[in-house]
Please model this.
Amino acid sequence: AQKITQTQPGMFVQEKEAVTLDCTYDTSDPSYGLFWYKQPSSGEMIFLIYQGSYDQQNATEGRYSLNFQKARKSANLVISASQLGDSAMYFCAMREGLDDYKLSFGAGTTVTVRA
Amino acid sequence: NAGVMQNPRHLVRRRGQEARLRCSPMKGHSHVYWYRQLPEEGLKFMVYLQKENIIDESGMPKERFSAEFPKEGPSILRIQQVVRGDSAAYFCASSPASGRWASKETQYFGPGTRLLVL
Model:
């Protein structure tokens, strides 16, 4: 079974508007961490934001925020005030368990920001 | 503080040749992970290494693939007798520690090596 599901293959957003990227996950482990990475056309993987399963508050990092809904097993990324440089592929990833280290990635969502 | 370094960035090989991909982790990081990204897909875990130890190679194909992280020098992912299906981007990541994490222990990725097998 897929551990991470990203159902939106591609999205368009107008510059300066907000965009929400969906991510649902599947795990039976009560301890896990959720990550979002950005992959621009140049190909590198850039860490954006992290949410722990026991964190009480939604994570925020600058223009990035994570809408964590534990009961629904969703961890959507919100990018506010989109910029042209935000055009990239975005991956949601999960690490399960206190002792685990492997990241499981979703298939990604391509975001294109329009001027 | 230099990030994770990988070389070469691009590698072209003919079927049957060997590919050697190198990864130098971030300064202070002793844990290295290799992932493979096939076209239009997310990254898939291959192997986790610490210095001179392979901790988990459950994601690595049983044949032709090997990895090492010697006491001195970079981590090496080696693919022998490459086939067209090996064409992919190979990413290395590093972290300062692993297991029993109380905080995020983020894995930081290198720029990747794009392998093309002709």
About this structure: Residues 4 and 25 of chain A are 5 Å apart (CA to CA). Chain A is about 0% helix and 50% strand. Chain A touches chain B through 25 residues (CB under 8 Å).
